[in-house]
Amino acid sequence: MKRFIILIGLMAGLLAFGQQDPMFTHYMYNTLSVNPAYAGSREALTVTLLHRNQWVSFPGAPKTTTLSLHTPIFNENVGVGLSVCDDKIGDTRFTSFYADFAFGVKLTKKSKLTFGLKAGTDLFSADLSALDLDDPNDPAFQYAFSNKVLPNFGFGMYYTYNNKFYAGLSIPRLLEHKFVGENTLISSGILKGHYYFITGGVVKMGRFVDFKPSALVKMTVGAPVQLDVTALFEFYKRFNIGVMYRTGDGIGALVGIYLYERLLLGYSYDYSFTNTTMKYNQGSHEIMLRYDFIFSNQHRIKSPRYF
Question: What is the count of structural domains for the chain?
């Protein structure tokens, strides 16, 4: 059973769609990691830290940490950003470093279309020999990938209307990489390109209540389309609460509170209802921290955005 569970974890991490790119319940706060056109869109120097502990109690389950920062430069139509992600699954580790550049064009007084480029590299390592096996001499596990450098680049578009609606389309990794090794479980592993569509908005439901629906569509060749849908309610612009549904996977809940005017702390819990994993885990936890730096000498930056 132990070996069976380890194999599920490895295959999920290296071959399955869901974990080739990490999933996040707080995807609406982590847009830069998948769409470079988001850089600078909040009209502030925004720093976001997010950690996900997935499938608690499942041996070798994914643990992912991301750090991103982005800001407008020169004017509100040009933005730059930097994102770092560390994704650990069992004895495999996938670490990425990417820089982002965005350039926006005003379509009307209330709408804007931004184009973005992402460039960087991924580092992949896996030590199968470190696994706890029934047969320590199994030749299929006597191999280690050590810091494979995988350069890549991506593209994205991001549309906003009157700070009330947004939609983005992106391909964060255009290049596909294949792992080649003899007599290993991951000799035919391929990191495929993923396509993302994100959208959301704000609906005023009263003087002190905002409804903020959002959705994220994830697509890749040879795998089912996955959809995350979230309904978030924000009260007094001080705290929020919401629910999430992920097709083919699970449901979740989110809460957030502004500790200060521009410091947002968020937490989420989601539970997988798929037969493959639900028997072996106790759900997934995420914690998110975001801060907007607004400098007094930057007169072009008036206030942080909704998204």
Answer: 1
Contact 151, 163 (CB under 8 A): no
**pTM for this prediction:** 0.84
Whole-number Cα distances in Å, 301 to 127, 201, 259: 47, 21, 21
Distance CA 273, CA 283 (A): 9
DSSP at 131 = S
Place of tokens 């035919």: 188
> Any idea what the CATH number is for the domain that residue 47 is in?
2.40.160.40
In a domain, 182, yes or no: yes
Does residue 303 lie in a domain region?
A: no
Q: Is residue 302 part of a domain?
A: no
What does the block give as tokens for 265?
A: 């702390």
In a domain, 59, yes or no: yes
Check if the beta carbon of residue 159 is closer than 8 Å to that of residue 166.
Answer: yes
Could you read off the pLDDT of 21-74 as tens digits, one per residue?
Answer: 788 999 999 999 999 999 999 989 999 999 999 888 777 788 999 999 999 998
Domain assignment of residue 176, given as a range: 2-293
Encode burial over 31-61: b for 16+ CB neighbours within 10 A, e otherwise. bbbbbbbbbbbbbbbbbbebebebbeebbbb
Residue length, the chain? 307
Kindly report the CA angle at 204 between 42 and 256, in degrees rounded to 5? 55
- pLDDT, one tens digit per residue, over 232-256 is 999 999 999 999 999 988 899 999 9
